[in-house]
Amino acid sequence: MSQATTKRGGFGGKLAAILAAAGSAIGLGNIWRFPYITSENGGGAFILIYLGCILLLGLPLLIAEFAVGHNSKCNPIDAYAKLRKGWGWLGAMGIVSVFLIMGYYFVISGWTLNYTIASATDSIGSDFGGFFSSFTTATWRPLIYTYLFIIANHFIIVGGVQGGIEKASKVMMPLLFAILIILAIYSLWLPEGREALTNVFTPDFSKVSGSTFLAAMGQAFFTLSVGMGAMLIYGSYFKDGTKIAGTAISVVSLDTLVALIAAVIIFSAGVENENGPQLAFVAMPKVFSTMPLGNIWATLFFLLLGLAALSSTISMHEAVTSYFVEKRGMSRNKGAIIVTVATILLATAASLSLGDWSDFKIAGMNIFSLLDNFTAIVMLPLLGILTAIFVGWLWKSEDMKAELTAQGGVDKATYPVIRFLLRYVCPVLVSVVFVFGIIEFIKNL
Ligand code: TRP
């Protein structure tokens, strides 16, 4: 391990660190998931609770994960074990969770590729729901797009931290922001867009219930990629002198901005009543088809979704690959191949579970929903609680303090606030929401 750690790669500078970590955070969670979760949970009121979760829980956890990564300069398993003997399992739990997320996340990523091509070639047709269901339940077509996406990921990872991840982030993220801004300007220019928007963002507190908090917290953790080792591994690649808290604040701000702008784009198209995961894939193409130059807007939209997905999946792949490279002493090539092959197998099962294998169910769910629900409802909150306890209570407090204040850009007065959030607020709040979440989940089975 010591040999591997001395040879490990890293980001070239501060901007690279921000772009790569923002790339991990900004993903399907922002553009596909956030808008439909928001519309299912009452719009503006949900957004306020969500912003609270981001600030009180997400941001401190992201800072904590960056700090653990940067201080240990290790893959997630060695990182926790190095900072406290016997705690490597926490990193392993994160890696397993990230792998399970990859199983279904790559399937949706594959859909974005198909939709980008189908929009550009005007081949979606006029039956938008029919196109979606016949495509996603087919055997080979969705698999081929998913495999293409996984292979693109593979080559970025094999390119290395600087030559692959950093380079890809520096190209993809500016392109993503540019497309997002073009789409936002266009949607705000539509008069019905502005009206729809006011409706959505006006808070309606009558729709707030226990499950609203649950959904908001789950979304906050998912969108920031916290607790799973992906941000930890990126933190471990930060060059010395990269401000940890500052980077986390930039990442959280960009991520929140993208989620809000994505919601503006989607709701201003007037689709706020069409709920659920099909919002981006069924309702949006339908709306685009009624606009002048609709194909171009649709193509840009799905390209945006695909870019966001790709910059997230590379961080997932990297978190798992780093384990094989550093812990198992494999070459980067070999480690990446193992992860890619395993991902292909899991994603195949997830994709087929929507069609040919849809009769195979565990606890009433197909494989796709099982991976989604198990990670979102069980693993994410659990990892959030454990990470907060680890950093707040178990890691030597001088090390954490030094990591944040010495070069992390946090002043002496702000540090206790972060520490307080990690020691008390995160474990307690997340536990309460977690327990209610599990009860509700079991009731709904
Ligand atoms: N943050 C990503 C998004 O919003 C999704 C995600 C969840 C993720 N967990 C992750 C990305 C772990 C990388 C690593 O789409």
Question: What this model shows, in words?
Answer:
The chain is mostly helical and 445 residues long. Helix content is 78%, strand content 0%. It is built from 19 helices and no strands. The protein has helices spanning 2-7, 14-25, 28-40, 44-72, 76-83, 88-120, 128-136, 140-158, 161-189, 191-201, 210-223, 230-236, 244-268, 279-289, 294-327, 332-352, 367-394, 397-406, 415-444. Helix 2 (14-25) runs antiparallel to helix 12 (230-236), helix 6 crosses helix 8 and helix 6 (88-120) packs across helix 16. The longest helix is centred in the last third of the chain and has 34 residues, at 294-327. The protein is globular. Residues 1-6 have low confidence and may be disordered. The structure holds tryptophan (TRP). Tryptophan binds next to helix 2, helix 3, helix 6, helix 11 and helix 15. The site of tryptophan (TRP) has 16 residues, from helix 2, helix 3, helix 6, helix 11 and helix 15.
Task: Describe the protein's topology.
Blueprint: H1 2-7, H2 14-25, H3 28-40, H4 44-72, H5 76-83, H6 88-120, H7 128-136, H8 140-158, H9 161-189, H10 191-201, H11 210-223, H12 230-236, H13 244-268, H14 279-289, H15 294-327, H16 332-352, H17 367-394, H18 397-406, H19 415-444
Helix pairs in contact: 2-9, 2-12, 2-13, 2-15, 3-11, 3-13, 4-5, 4-11, 4-12, 4-13, 4-17, 4-18, 4-19, 5-6, 6-8, 6-15, 6-16, 6-17, 7-14, 8-9, 8-15, 8-16, 9-13, 9-15, 10-13, 11-17, 11-19, 12-15, 14-15, 15-16, 17-19
Bound molecules: tryptophan (TRP).
Tryptophan (TRP) binds at residues 24-25, 27-30, 98, 101, 222-223, 225, 228, 230, 312, 315-316.
